[in-house]
Structures are given as C-alpha cells and as structure tokens.
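Form 7-S
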Amino acid sequence: MPLIVITGYPSSGKSQRVKEIREYFIKRIKEENKQLRVHVIDDESLHVPKEAYQDAREEKKARGALLSAVERTLSKDDVVIADGLNYIKGYRYQLYCIARAIGTPHCVVYTGVPADMAKEWNKKRGDKGYTEVIFDELVSRYEEPEERNRWDSPLFTVIYDDIQIPNDKIWDAVILRKALPPNKSTVSKPVSSTNYVYELDKTTLDIINAFVENQKEYGTGGTAMTVPRSTVKVINPPRTVTSSELRRLRKQFVTINKLTTLNIDRIGEVFVNYLNSNLE
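Output:
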C-alpha cells in the first residue's frame, strides 16, 4: 500500500507528526476492518546516529539504508511512513520511483517550521539533538518540497502551530486514491526487455563518460555541459565530481528504472535531470 514521505528541517517535529499519523491510520484500519500493516522507518530503527550527518560518506550510507528499508517493506499490504529529513529533492524522487514501480500511491508531509524555531527546539533536546554545526549545515542544504513536482505531490504542509494535521485528507490521498497512471516518462512504445536494459546501460554510461571528459577539459564550475543522448544539459558544479560518485548515481538510477520502463528516447533526459538533482 502507500508510501508517506515525511520531510522538514531537523528538530522540526517530524517524529511527533509521524506518531499522530500512525495512530490515526491504525485506528482507521481497525474501524474499517482493512488488512493493512503500518510501518515507520526512521534513523532510530535503522541505528543511524545523528553524527552520521557530519560526514558526507556516512550520510550517503544513512540515506541508502532508509531507501533500501522502504523498498523492502513497501507492498500492497503495508503502509510505510518514511520518517527522516528527506531534504534532497533527488532523494524524494527516488522514493517516489519506488512507490510508482509497484503501483502504489504516495504523498509528502512537510513540517513547516521556521529555521530559527527549529534551532531553538533542537537546543532544548540537549544531547539528543544535533550539534549546531550539523544543524546549520542541514538547514542550508534543505530543498523545500514543491507540489508542482510530481514526486512532491500530493503535498500536505503542517504548520508548527497546527493543533491537528489533515489525517482524513492524507488517508484519502493514499488509501482511496489509485496510483497514478504512467506519465510521459514511461513507455510509450513496446520494446523488448533485453533492448531496454541495453539502452538504459549504454545511455547512462555515455552520459557519465562525457561528463568526466568535459570536467577534465573545461574544469569545474561554469556553464552547463552538453552530453550525448539528451537535450537537457548537465550542471557543472564547482567541485570535481569523482568517477566513483558518478558510477554510484548511475547504479542507483539504473536499479530504480529497471523496475519500470522509460521511453527509450527519454532515458538520457530523465537521467540528466536525476544527475542535476543530486549534483546541486
């Protein structure tokens, strides 16, 4: 069943809102005699310490752990609440793709709390909170969800002083709503599975190879780069992007999109958009 993605600043009350959503869903499931289970996946359940967010490599492992847990748990009989920062739009896109791949609805719940208020709440948590350095870093990198993005829709914003959250609307959005039909990125013409996987591998490999060569020739930063198989250009961040990072992003993209079937003509464009969302 559905995936509910929680997002917001650190110490913005996400876990409290998750508790409210979970209690509501369990009660409603019992009342309607539905055979559904509710799971909350968060850093605590995955044994991820807050210190993981002070190191880029450890943070990537933490995000990967949550992503894998969601993918393992999500099914037709399981409601999954992904309780985490989920602050990178490319990461929310990955969660969205998992839900779409198994044909289940999803929504995003955003805890709308001003950064200075979240910082005060964080201080009050003492040793259980984030260090000031980690908190400031996470806030500076936070990418606010936008409902116009399909991976952030439907979006429910819960303001810090809202006494109640729109549980009824969240329920309707993910339990009563059918999963969205294939969008323009999904297959529009039949292709063999063998040919699709070949094109997926080749297109993404051509693009990351071109990216590496462009950075070698023109350096970091500057204008966006033209790559093969895509009309969309790849951003050129003000840092050297290593081959291992590109291979990791390519592997994630290929793994996710082997579960669905993109239009072959749009693989390059979709992959470039995925790179751009992760390289910003």
